[in-house]
Amino acid sequence: MLFNSFTFLIFLPIVFLLYWFLFQKNLKLQNAFLLLSSYVFYGWWDWRFLTLIIASSAVDYFCGLKMGNVIAPARRGGNDAGVKQSDSEEKRLLQVDSDSNQSETANNLRNDEHGIRHRTSGNSSVFGLPSSVLNAFSGRKLYLTISLFFNLGILAFFKYFNFFIDSAADFISILGFQPHISTLSIILPVGISFYTFQTLSYSIDVYRGKLKPTKDPIAFFTFVAFFPQLVAGPIERASNLLPQFFKKREFQYQQGSDGMKLILWGLFKKMVIADNCALVVNPIFENYQTASGLELIMGAVLFAFQIYGDFSGYSDIAIGVAKLFGFDLMTNFRTPYFSRDIAEFWRRWHISLSTWFRDYLYIPLGGSRVPKSKAIRNIFIVFLVSGFWHGANWTFITWGGIHAALFIPIFLIGKNRTHMHEGEHLLPSFKEVFQMVSTFALVCIAWVFFRADTVGEAWEYLNGILANPLLPSNFAWLGYDIRIALILFIALEWLGRYQFNWLERLQGKWYRYPAYLFTGFLIVFWGVFTEVKEFIYFQF
């Protein structure tokens, strides 16, 4: 189900009204209704793939409980029975350990790393694994491994199976052989990369002792499948979103109003900016061999606006819809195209993913607290994996490698954390303008690889900018009205650099309501009577 579809326009008010009028006084019923609604939302695309998200939720719920039980004996004096907890204690299950327990948790973690074996009988097994395999791990590590292997295994099969097969076939061909390897017709489940990373954050945090496992399956399953951000993020941390399912929620007008404004602005980004840029971008990339250098530049620049409007628009709608139901999601974008270097760009672009890789990959690898040679290795790993996360194509890996190559020089000279705050003045200095324009140009060059079908086509596209600068135009330029919309969008984004979401800053009904009506008119004028387009990040 698409946010920009008539189906969702009907779905959202029905769910909203039932949620607040029938279930407001019962938190468990609220969560259960949200879970059912989320499954309807996801199953609307293909109900068969509901089994994957349910299985992923069940495995991580089970593994979380088992990891919690392994830590528990040390805290209760070695009693191997379970820990009995009251309903009131359930509300605290998701809180970070207090200072008094942190040293004890750390001792458990160290003991676990030294290989304290999980005792099993000779014929015992878990998930069909023999005891010889189980004894190779300690208790918590075993269940974390099960979670990682199950979730990443499902992701690898559905998203990367054919990529590895094709890559192996290409490599064998280079060696002079003619392989006959068949691929499978595998449908990529929508949002699998997003909800896989979201549920893994829960398992990893429970393993680290930073989060207590929940005993409430309905709350946990709803956390994984929460429909506003299910298929394209933000990728929420369990420590932020999961506790919200245990708090009493009452409708608040201001929160609902803020949510509606974000939904309106997100639809503007998607239907007015992104979808209309796509009308120019698609033919340019499809016919890049005959396009002029100026047209190719325009195609790259407009794709930058297309993917930003499309993806950040989805995030705004997701955050806004969540607010309608009493939830707060993390900000995913902060005007990234006004960044003054690549390091700042990645602090502003797809924040939920970049911080996920920082906390669960970069820091465990040693981060920057290792010799610079290893730190450079860690940076390359993170960016390459980030590219691979986006899709099973060498274009995405190349895109990640380009950003790593742009980031490392800044890191080596110690400037990667220079621009941690906004500029001091509303009007930028000449130096800041140069930094922003040059950074945006580098980002656009990398976007060409992201958008192209193959790495070779991306190189040909970039070569065409230099080789064919004077060719006559074969494509119609943007219409006058779209150009005005882009200029307006850039101006509002610049204001948003200082005042996030300009719609929230309008004061007085004589300013607010005309702005809302005008934005709604543009959405209807450019979106309702055109073909409904999927969000770009649905494919990831």
What topology does this entry show?
Blueprint: H1 6-22, H2 27-46, H3 50-75, H4 87-90, H5 99-113, H6 131-134, H7 139-174, H8 192-208, H9 217-225, H10 238-241, H11 253-286, H12 293-324, H13 342-348, H14 351-362, H15 372-390, H16 394-412, H17 430-451, H18 455-467, H19 480-496, H20 509-528
Helix pairs in contact: 1-2, 2-9, 3-7, 3-8, 3-9, 7-8, 11-12, 11-19, 11-20, 12-17, 12-18, 14-15, 15-16, 16-17, 17-18
Uncertain regions: pLDDT < 50 for 5+ in a row?
72-124
The dominant shape is: globular
| Mean pLDDT across all amino acids | 80
Order of helices and strands: HHHHHHHHHHHHHHHHHHHH
Question: What percentage of the residues does DSSP assign to strands (E)?
Answer: under 5%
**Tell me about the biggest sheet?**
none
Q: Percent of residues in helical segments?
A: 55-70%
Q: How many DSSP-defined strands?
A: 0
> Over the alpha carbons, how many angstroms does the gyration radius reach?
25 Å
Q: Supply the number of helical segments.
A: 20
Tell me the distance between the termini: 16 Å
Short description:
Helices cover 64% and strands 0% of the residues.
Can you give a write-up of this model?
The protein is mainly α and 540 residues long. The chain has 20 helices and no strands.
Which terms would index this structure?
540 residues; mainly alpha
